[in-house]
Design goal:
Elements lengths: L2 E2 L14 E2 H7 L2 H4 L3 H17 L5 H19 L12 H13 L1 H5 L6 H37 L4 E6 L2 E7 H26 L1 E2 L15 H7 L4 E2 L3 H6 L2 H28 L6 E2 L18 H25 L13 H21 L4 E2 L1 H9 L5 H10 L4 H18 L8 H5 L9 H5 L1 H7 L8 H16 L2
Parallel strand pairs: 5-6
Antiparallel strand pairs: 1-2, 3-4, 7-8
Helix pairs in contact: 3-4, 3-7, 3-9, 4-5, 7-8, 7-13, 7-20, 8-11, 8-20, 11-12, 11-13, 12-13, 15-16
Bound molecules: arginine.
C-alpha cells in the first residue's frame, strides 16, 4: 500500500497515520475547484478585513494577508502557482501558500471561519457572476432576434399545431415567441440571484463562532444583500445551485426547441432557412450534404444540462444537516452547466444574424394546407351563423377543395355558395394569407402591426435591463 504523509495538511494534528494515496487522489478537488480561486480570494479579503476591524488581526497582519493574497492571485493568473493535490482543494492550496509567503499571519486568516462557510460563500459568489454572464448573453440574443423579427414582421409562413399547417402567421411573430421564452429565462435567473445573494460567512463549521465577528461587514464587503439566518442551514444549503441549474435546464430546453425548429426549417423539405456555411458542416461521404450541426449540438447539449440538474437534486436528497463531504460533488455539474449554456447562447448569437430566411418558400408553404379555413368560418360567424355550424360547413368546403385539388382562394364564388349562400364576393379578402394575418390585430396576435408593437416593447425592456 502506498501512502502519503498526512503531515503538512492543515487538518493533520490528530492523525498519526498517513493518507493512502488512493484516498488522497479520491478526495482531492483542486483540479476542478481551482476555478473558484478569485472568489475564494475575494472571500478571504473580506473576512480578513472584518477580523482586523474586530481587533482579531493586527494592522500589520492584515496588510500582509492582503499583499499575500494579491501575490497568489497574480501567480495563479500567470500560471505560476504550484497546485498541490496533497492540499486537497482550492481553499487549502491558497491558505497554505499564503502561510509560505507571509508566515504566521497567514495561519491566522482562518480564525472564526471554516472551509464549510468558506466554500458556501465561494460558490455563491461564483453563481452570482455566472448568472450575470448568462443574463447578459440572453439580452444580446434577444436583441439579435428582435432585429430579425423586425425585418420579417410581414413575412408570411405557416403556423403549426401537431406539426400540421394550422393558420398563417408572420415569421416576425414566431421569432418574437422565442424572445418571450428567453425573457422568462432571464427572469428566472434574476429571481435565483436575489435568493442566493445572502452571506453564509460566520456560520463557520456549522454552529457559528465564539469570536466577536461582524457578519454584516463581511456581507457588505462582498456585495451580499444580507446575512444568512441560521448557521446550520448556511453551510448545507445548496438550493441556489439546484435553482440555478433548474433555470439553466429550462433555458436549455428552450434553446433545444428552437434548435429543433431550425433543423426542420433548414431541411430541404421545408427550405425555410439557410443557416449559413459558417454554422453547418458537411458529410465525409455524401458530397451534397450541409448539415445544421450547430442547432443539433444545441439540442443535444440540453441533455447534459438536464442531467446536471438531476445530479444536483439527487446529491442533496439524502443529506442530513449540516455540511457533508458529498457537497464537493456540486461543483462539476455547476461548471458544466454554466459552460454549456454559455456555449449554446454564444453559437446562437453568432449564427442568427447570418441566417437567410426564404420568404417565397415560406409563403408557398403557407398557401398549402387550407390555412385560412378558420378565417372562412369566422367570416360566416360575422354573417350571423353560429360558430359550430360555420365550422361544419367550412369542413365540407375543405373536403370539396381537396377533391378538386384546389386551394380555398382558388374556388369560385359559385362553388363556395353551393355550401352557403351567405357568402359574397368579399370572402376573398379573408381567404388571402395577408388578410388572415392582419385580422389578428390584438395584443399577442400575429398581425404585422402587433408584431411591431411587441418589438417596440421588447426593445424597451431590453434597454432598461
Ligand atoms: N472541498 C470541500 C467542498 O467542496 C470544501 C469543504 C471541505 N470541508 C470539510 N469539512 N472537509 O465542499
Amino acid at each position: 500500500m502506498s501512502q502519503v504523509p498526512a503531515d503538512g495538511k492543515p487538518w493533520a494534528g490528530r492523525f498519526s497515520q498517513d493518507t493512502d494515496r488512493v484516498m488522497e487522489n479520491f478526495s482531492a478537488s483542486e483540479h476542478f475547484d481551482r476555478r473558484l480561486y478569485r472568489h475564494d480570494i475575494e472571500g478571504s479579503r473580506a473576512h480578513a478585513k472584518m477580523l482586523a476591524a474586530a481587533g482579531i488581526l493586527s494592522a500589520d497582519e492584515y496588510e500582509a494577508i492582503i499583499d499575500g493574497l494579491g501575490t497568489i492571485r497574480e501567480q495563479i493568473e500567470a500560471g505560476e502557482f504550484n497546485w498541490s493535490q496533497r492540499l486537497e482543494d482550492v481553499h487549502m492550496n491558497i491558505e497554505s501558500r499564503l502561510t509560505d509567503l507571509i508566515g504566521d499571519a497567514g495561519k491566522k486568516l482562518h480564525t472564526g471561519r471554516s472551509r464549510n462557510d468558506q466554500v458556501a460563500t465561494d460558490i455563491r459568489l461564483f453563481v452570482r457572476e455566472a448568472i450575470d454572464a448568462i443574463v447578459a448573453r440572453l439580452g444580446v440574443l434577444q436583441s439579435v432576434l428582435v432585429e430579425r423579427a423586425e425585418t420579417e414582421a410581414d413575412t408570411i409562413m405557416p403556423g403549426f399545431t401537431h406539426m400540421q399547417s394550422a393558420q398563417p402567421v408572420t415569421l416576425g411573430h414566431h421569432l418574437m415567441a422565442w424572445v418571450e421564452m428567453l425573457d422568462r429565462d432571464a427572469g428566472r435567473f434574476n429571481d435565483c440571484r436575489t435568493r442566493l445573494n445572502v452571506c453564509p460567512l460566520g456560520a463557520a463549521a456549522l454552529a457559528g463562532t465564539s469570536y466577536p465577528i461582524d457578519r454584516e461587514m463581511t456581507a457588505e464587503a462582498l456585495g451580499f444583500d444580507t446575512v444568512s439566518g441560521n448557521s446550520l442551514d448556511s453551510v448545507s444549503d445548496r438550493d441556489f445551485l439546484m435553482e440555478f441549474n433548474a433555470a439553466a435546464a429550462i433555458l436549455a430546453v428552450h434553446l433545444s426547441r428552437i434548435a429543433e425548429e431550425l433543423v426542420l426549417w433548414s431541411s430541404e423539405r421545408f427550405g425555410f432557412v439557410d443557416l449559413g456555411d459558417a454554422f453547418c458542416t458537411g458529410s465525409s461521404i455524401m458530397p451534397q450534404k450541409k448539415n445544421p450541426d450547430a442547432a443539433e449540438l444545441v439540442r443535444g447539449k440540453s441533455a447534459r444540462v438536464i442531467g446536471n440538474l438531476m445530479a444536483l437534486l439527487v446529491l442533496m436528497k439524502g443529506q442530513p444537516l449540516a455540511y457533508n463531504r458529498d457537497n464537493q460533488e456540486d461543483k462539476e455539474p455547476l461548471f458544466d452547466t454554466l459552460d454549456t449554456v454559455v456555449a449554446c447562447l454564444d453559437v446562437y448569437i453568432a449564427m442568427f444574424p447570418g441566417a437567410q430566411f426564404n420568404r417565397p418558400r415560406m409563403l408557398a408553404a403557407a398557401s398549402e394546407g387550407f390555412a385560412t379555413a378558420t378565417d372562412l368560418a369566422d367570416y360566416l360567424v360575422r354573417r350571423n351563423m353560429p360558430f359550430r355550424d360555420a365550422h361544419e360547413i367550412v369542413g365540407k368546403v375543405v373536403a370539396a377543395a381537396i377533391d378538386k385539388g384546389l386551394r380555398l382562394d382558388q374556388l369560385t364564388l359559385e362553388e363556395l355558395r353551393v355550401f352557403c349562400n351567405a357568402i359574397d364576393e368579399d370572402v376573398f379578402e379573408v381567404l388571402t394569407l395577408e388578410g388572415s394575418v392582419s385580422a389578428r390585430d390584438h395584443i399577442g396576435g400575429t398581425a404585422p402591426a402587433q408584431v411591431r408593437k411587441a418589438i417596440a416593447s421588447a426593445r424597451l425592456r431590453l434597454k432598461n435591463g
